[in-house]
Amino acid sequence: MSVEIGQSAPDFELKDQHGAPVKLSDFRGEKSVVLVFYPLAFSGVCTGELCQIRDELPTLGGDDVQVLAVSVDSVFALRAWAEQEKYQFPLLSDFWPHGGTAQRYGVFDEEKGLALRGTFIIDAQGVVRWKVVNAIPDARDLDEYRKALAGL
After folding, report:
1. End-to-end CA distance of the chain
2. Which helix (H) or strand (E) holds 103?
3. Does the pTM of the predicted model rise above 0.90?
4. What are the structural domains, with CATH classification, of the chain?
5. Among the options 3, 14, 33, 46, which is catalytic?
6. Would you call 51 a catalytic residue per the annotation?
7. Which of the pair, 62 or 101, is modelled with greater confidence?
8. Cα(137)–Cα(152) distance, integer angstroms
9. Distance of CA 48 to the CA centre of its chain
10. Where do the catalytic residues lie (predicted)?
11. CA 23, CA 89: separation in Å to the nearest integer?
């Protein structure tokens, strides 16, 4: 079942690349969230997408917006990737139960065992205001994130 626009975003708690727990609900009442599911760390399209987010982060709403990037990779792989690419936003591990959060959002590819390229923009009240789901090889357009955030 997919999470749809207008629904409350399912809460979750996942560990970031440093092993610290991050809850979606921690941002409620404080910030909008750009929740980015991606297939795998170190892959070409994923690196390109997250580097673009890293480089354009100030134009995505500044301190009022939190980017959370989620994959099925382990915390250890995410830490190595974050250090290599200098990502400053949390990379969250949906490692166990394997893809559980991606499944709850309806963006888990059961056959391949990883997330599709799903993005959910969640307002400060925890409601999904925009979403896009792309196939694994298809990169997303960061300008669409900006437009959706400007509409909040």
Report:
1. 25
2. helix 100-105
3. yes
4. 7-150 (3.40.30.10)
5. 46
6. no
7. 101
8. 29
9. 14
10. 46 (cysteine sulfenic acid (-soh) intermediate)
11. 14
